[in-house]
Design a protein that fits this description.
CATH architecture of the largest domain: 3-Layer(aba) Sandwich
Largest sheet: 7 strands, mixed
Number of strands: 15
Shape: globular
Number of domains: 2
Structural class: alpha/beta
Radius of gyration: 20 Å
CATH superfamily of the largest domain: Type I PLP-dependent aspartate aminotransferase-like (Major domain)
Strand content: 15-25%
């Protein structure tokens, strides 16, 4: 199969050191040979989340950890913020488990007004508020600071989908008082697909449903917690772990921490700004107009005239061996998206993208 540069919203390019971990010998996922390595990996994840809360790594996509979170809050009432395809997914998942779901819906690319959230909470007594931090369908960054304040004032759980932001965008779980923060291995964390992560606050545990009231065994955070307590010295999880995915993720964590979180966040901003500036110079409209709400890991844009995102995608793939993405949901044919996260967020790779787009524009 041909080697392509992945400049899509996920999965991302991986550092060669991460991929090299897949060549390591197999190891049992339990016992003393594994335990030190496993606990070390969790400690690194806590540092990246910037939390003292308990953290778990679950074999699944990021959606699996979202499913586990809402399943574990079975019967609660929630306010879900939706301004894109993955906000819609939050609503969909939550609707399977919560007793009532109240939705504040905005058109793709529109930000939430704090006043309308406060008014919704005045009218409805809820147990939780959930939001997507980085809406990759539009390249939009939703602000968490004011949402954090509201959740603390209302004493409700704060749930954040950080699948496309953890490791690439400034995020401190403890500072923001996030009760459930969900992410995944294959995006800004810089590893390969297959693992999801979740951090859980003490308030989150207190408000969680009883284990037998959660309509799942595998995607049940109480199950994971029980095995952590009962089998903690040799097998603190309920299932067989994919050892090589852990090898890769552990090395990705090392790369993040060696670079430094603040430097890494700044690098993502710089690469995003480089791309956005070039696109505007080419006469391409950025989908998110306000710089404050632009996602540092994914950029979404609209081509001028009769040029199509499908045409650009095919040109980039065939002429440069670069994969970029089209839109999703209602924006499927309207926008194109470029992912620039983790290893993909470097000057050389983004300049290849910029040159390819420029030549496409010149030829059309």
């Amino acid at each position: 199969m041909k080697r392509y540069q992945l400049s899509i919203p996920g999965p991302t390019e991986c550092d060669p050191e991460v991929l090299n971990e897949l060549n390591r010998p197999n190891l049992p996922h339990y016992g003393d040979l594994w335990m030190d390595y496993y606990l070390e990996t969790l400690q690194k994840l806590q540092r990246i989340y910037q939390t003292k809360n308990s953290v778990y790594i679950i074999p699944s996509s990021g959606s699996g950890a979202l499913d586990a979170t809402f399943a574990s809050l079975n019967g609660k009432k929630g306010l879900i913020l939706d301004n894109g395809t993955f906000g819609e997914r939050l609503v969909d998942i939550a609707s399977h488990y919560l007793s009532e779901v109240i939705v504040i819906h905005k058109n793709p690319g529109e930000h939430f007004e704090i006043q309308e959230i406060e008014e919704a909470l005045q009218k409805n007594k809820v147990d939780l508020l959930a939001v997507v931090h980085g809406e990759t369908s539009t390249g939009m960054l939703n602000n968490l600071e004011e949402l954090s304040r509201i959740c603390q004032e209302e004493n409700i759980l704060f749930i954040v989908d950080a699948i496309s932001t953890l490791g690439g965008v400034e995020l401190s779980v403890d500072k923001l008082g996030i009760d459930f923060c969900i992410s995944a291995s294959q995006k800004a964390l810089g590893s390969i697909p297959g693992l999801s992560t979740v951090s859980i606050s003490s308030k989150g545990w207190d408000k969680m449903a009883a284990e037998n009231d959660i309509p799942s065994w595998y995607l049940n955070l109480r199950t994971w917690h029980r095995y952590e307590k009962e089998w903690g010295d040799w097998h603190p999880f309920p299932i067989t772990l994919p050892v090589h995915l852990f090898y890769a993720l552990n090395r990705a964590f090392d790369i993040i921490l060696e670079e430094g979180l603040e430097q890494r966040w700044n690098r993502h901003k710089e690469i995003a700004n480089m791309l956005c500036t070039s696109l505007e110079e080419f006469g391409i409209s950025l989908f998110i107009k306000d710089k404050e709400y632009r996602l540092p890991t994914v950029t979404s844009a609209i081509l001028p005239g009769k040029m199509t995102s499908e045409g650009l995608q095919m040109y980039m793939r065939e002429e440069y061996g670069i994969l970029i993405a089209g839109g999703v949901g209602p924006l499927r044919k309207k926008v194109f998206r470029v992912g620039h996260m983790a290893y993909s967020a470097n000057e050389y790779l983004i300049k290849r993208v910029i040159v390819g787009i420029k030549n496409f524009m010149n030829n059309n």
